[in-house]
């Protein structure tokens, strides 16, 4: 074949593309399970940090297998709800079959569109309930978990993460323990708008459902505030008085059985 011909160029380019595509597919297939395992363990670390299962530093020092075991040992029930507040699915809590709603972006879209959402609720044996939040920061998505005391009203802990917020400013939502600790003991005012306030000088009002925004990180703070309130509103019907009392009753019965 004439190496200077157009046909040679097309054939050669096609072969290279096919070979590279095959190699990438092979690598993705081999790395996929490990990437999925890392993503699952990361989600569990964040959730259990918020739920105060172990200190954050210990959770991030533990191996993936240890995280899975710790979750299996401490979780009592996990399920999903719709925007009507009713259960619409169960999530396995068995160590070898742990199910999570790890991809929050699609659920965030369904919440805003009023679609058929499947929002996770994780109940630990301590009675603490963990739920996720997700939204847009300054440069990319922000997300995290908020844990509630058994009264489903008082915040027991929180953990937040981000994709690309500014180091030393917006990134403080993840990097600074003092920021997460400010949420402990605060309340979520279900049914009110906003249910929670994260804004400049919020605490000066004396409101139980308010935390001061991070100085110098206005847009990240606004994004996290919006994320909290969009998701709290989505969970509002489930944690309304009727569902709340029913869940407490179920938890008490299950605890006695255990």
> Residue share in helices?
40-55%
* Strand segment count: 8
Strand residues, percent: 15-25%
Stretches where pLDDT is under 50 for at least 5 consecutive residues are none
User: Biggest sheet, strands in spatial order?
Assistant: 2-1-3-4-5-6
How many angstroms separate the termini? 76 Å
Large-scale geometry: globular
Q: Describe the sheet with the most strands.
A: 6 strands, antiparallel
Count of helices? 8
Indicate the mean pLDDT.
88
Q: Structural class from helices and strands?
A: alpha+beta
Q: What is the domain tally? A: 1
Give structural notes.
- The chain is α+β, with helices and mostly antiparallel strands.
- It has one domain (76-257).
- The protein contains eight helices and eight strands.
- A hairpin with a 5-residue loop joins β1 (75-81) and β2 (87-90).
- α1 (6-50) packs across α3.
- The N and C termini lie far apart (76 Å).
How do you describe this structure in short?
The chain is an alpha+beta fold and 258 residues long. 45% of the residues lie in helices and 18% in strands. It has one domain (76-257).
Q: What is the topology?
A:
Elements: H1 6-50, H2 56-61, H3 64-74, E1 75-81, E2 87-90, H4 105-113, E3 119-124, E4 129-136, E5 141-148, E6 155-162, H5 172-175, H6 177-181, E7 197-199, E8 210-212, H7 218-235, H8 241-257
Parallel strand pairs: 7-8
Antiparallel strand pairs: 1-2, 1-3, 3-4, 4-5, 5-6
